[in-house]
Amino acid sequence: MILGIPKEIKVLEARVALTPAGAHTLVGAGHEVLIETTAGNGSGFSDQEYVHAGAKILPNADEVWMQAEMIIKVKEPQPVEIARARPGQTVFTYFHFAANRALTEGMIATGAHCFAYETLEVGRHLPLLTPMSEVAGRMSVQEGAKYLQAPQGGRGVLLGGLPGVAPSNVAILGGGVVGTQAAWMAAGLGANVHIFDVDLERMRYLEDVMPKNVTTIYSSRGAIREILPHTDLLIGAVLITGARAPKLVGQEDLKLMPNGSVIVDVAVDQGGCIETCKPTTHEEPTFVIDGVVHYCVANMPGAVPRTSTFGLTNATLPYVMQLAALGPKNAVLNDQRMATCANALAGTLTHEAVAKAFNMDWAPATEVAVNL
User: Fold this and answer.
1) What are the φ/ψ torsions at residue 362 (nearest 5 degrees)?
2) At 4, phi and psi to the nearest 5?
3) 294 noted as active-site residue
4) Which domain holds residue 22?
């Protein structure tokens, strides 16, 4: 198969979908790999490294999209990229369709086959979302600590406090991968950490593995509102596979939080779990509502592109190999994992959670694939 890796064009997105080592593996398996020139520069990979791996460098994105049978990306296609997609072409990337109706309708209209990293399931796990969730979870604490500093508009507190000075309080909504990584980071810096979740088995696990300055709390509106007046940093880490995130904190709740406190909503890719959050970029990452600093960058791992690109390729490469070897039809029909990440096939929406988000018609991927 001919695989194309265009340069990411989302604002300040420096990741690339494939490392040179990944390209070497694909070429060795008999595939042709096309790389847009300078696509890897932001992650520290030169065109020459890709050439040495056996890939071919193309001069622009138009050529990559035109020649490739499958496009491999990091972030959701931007409008100019949607216009380049064509019927029967496979696009494998993070789509987060449920947060963006225009993107959903735009990609369906192209007739392309859309496979979303974030909905690929193996058991109860999301292996292609995990590495970026790990990065985002750790970064949420780094960024939160930064914006708690007075020069950044925060209330001027140190997460870990000092001898004789109480540490800051961190509340995390969700005990999944993002929440767990955030808790480890915040606890390691000495903060008092509370994790909210509704999965009792998960909370029992977290109680076993987390340090003593981490406490689990069963999530409810009342429990969240009770802790907000004492919260310096609130991290949104809620995920429902393929669906919009539920709003757990409303705008009226912000009045309970201390002036200069900080919200980092990692769930913003899926619509955010704090009502006042809206996507921001690394150029302008924050805004303030009711005295609370909001950090809602929709591609947080893009700030550490080299680490993120290695982590992403490590996770995605086996599935890229599978999809390239079988093609979209056989991949869906013969591999349940690939069926779970097929969000649209040949102009038909094939993911129930996305359909529910917009009240759109859909059909199971396996039913649609039979007729491809």
Assistant:
1) -155, 165
2) -120, 135
3) no
4) 2-120+305-369
Query: Is 96 one of the annotated active-site residues of the chain?
Result: yes
One of 96, 113, 194, 351 is an active-site residue; which one?
96
Q: What is the per-residue pLDDT across 251-296, written as a single tens digit (0 to 9) for each? A: 999 999 999 999 999 999 888 999 999 999 999 999 999 999 999 9
Show the tokens assigned to 270: 């899926």
Please provide the DSSP assignment of 244-263 as one string: PPP--B-GGGGGGSPTT-EE
Q: Which of 303, 328, 345 is the last residue of a domain?
A: 303
E strands, 6-81, in order: 32-36, 56-58, 70-72
CA distance 257 to 53: 52
Catalytic residue, chosen from 197, 253, 265, 269, is: 269
The string of pLDDT tens digits covering residues 62-111 is: 999 999 999 999 999 999 999 999 999 999 999 999 889 999 999 999 99
Residue whose entry in the numeric block shows the structure tokens 């893009």: 302
Residue 31 DSSP symbol: -
Domain endpoint, select from 279, 303, 327: 303
CA-based nearest residue to 118, from 368, 363, 354, 362: 354
- The answer to whether residue 181 sits within a structural domain is yes
